[in-house]
Amino acid sequence: MSTRGVVAVTGAGRGIGAGIALELARRGFDVACLVRGSAPEAPAGSTGRLLTMSCDIRDPAAVAAALAAADALPGGLVGVVNNAGIQIEGPARDFPLESFEAMLATNVIGTFSVARQSYPYLRARGGGLIVNIGSMWEKMGARRYAAYCASKAAVSALGRCLAAEWARDGIRVLTVAPGYVDTPMTRAALEDERVRAFLKSRVPMGRAASIDEVARLVASLFSEDIAILTGETLYIDGGHGIGQ
Questions:
Q1: Domain boundaries, the chain
Q2: DSSP letters spanning 32-54
């Protein structure tokens, strides 16, 4: 079975990461699922395209081993999706510094570690694509989410800087920034009438995005391979960030 190359996806065991991994597999990519648990079940037609690799992105040695294994697969490493992340909320006035550090260690330093360690593999093949999963909340003032919003703003800033620095190596870097997304973890909250009313009043499209919508956007960036597109943050939030 031919391949379009290997894309490493962090946090591919559930939610948005699993959806992205499955959509990439459907489009003919082999997917190295870098997970702390188990990888998503392969859909019909993608058998063998999802390969599980145990990796905690906070551990540079684990990242190095996983990316080396991914690049050794047929087609080699052609891209990375930095999806793994955590979210901790709480009032800023007494938010534990340890929790803030944990958020940065995963969402920012982990993302940078994976991107930096993928660089030599992508450069050796003449280029590739790195997609970092940010958040629409990077540009919002949200109570109780100072650490999370700050970390996702850093992800976008990181993407712009890497895009500028690595463009001449043929490596493009983009950030995809969802707003509310309907996942198994958020479904109960999204079904609350108060939240539904909020979405209808504040989000022009009136609803959360689906995992499939986010996954198709990310996968299309790989399958279309638009060489001039780099350094941008692409918001997929139903217009929330521009709504009144």
A1: 6-182+210-238
A2: EEEESS-PPPPPTT-TT-EEEEE
CB 16 within 8 A of CB 82: no
Q: What are phi and psi of 82, to 5 degrees?
A: -90, 90
Q: What is the pLDDT of residues 122-159, one digit of tens each?
A: 999 999 999 999 999 999 888 999 999 999 999 999 99
From residue 174, alpha-carbon distances to 42, 81, 156, 236 in Å are: 26, 10, 8, 13
Question: What is the residue whose two structure tokens read 């929330």?
Answer: 240
CA angle 191, 208, 49 (to 5 degrees): 110
C-alpha span between 144 and 103 (Å, rounded): 14
What is the H or E stretch that residue 61 is in?
helix 60-71
Q: 110: helix, coil or strand?
A: helix
**CATH no. for 6-182+210-238:** 3.40.50.720
Does residue 42 surpass a pLDDT of 70?
no
| Euclidean distance between the first and the last CA atom of the chain, given in angstroms as a whole number | 49
Rounded to the nearest 5°, which phi and psi values hold at 7? -115, 125
Structure tokens that stand for 176 in this block: 């995809």
User: What Å distances lie between residue 16 and 60, 175, 201, CA to CA?
Assistant: 23, 14, 25
pTM given for the model = 0.94
Residue with the two structure tokens 């870098």: 34
In this structure, the strands spanning 30-35 and 50-54 are parallel
The 10s digit of each residue's pLDDT in 87-124 is 999 999 999 999 999 999 999 999 999 999 999 999 99
Helix (H, G, I), strand (E, B) or coil at 145: coil
Which residues are known catalytic residues?
A: 148
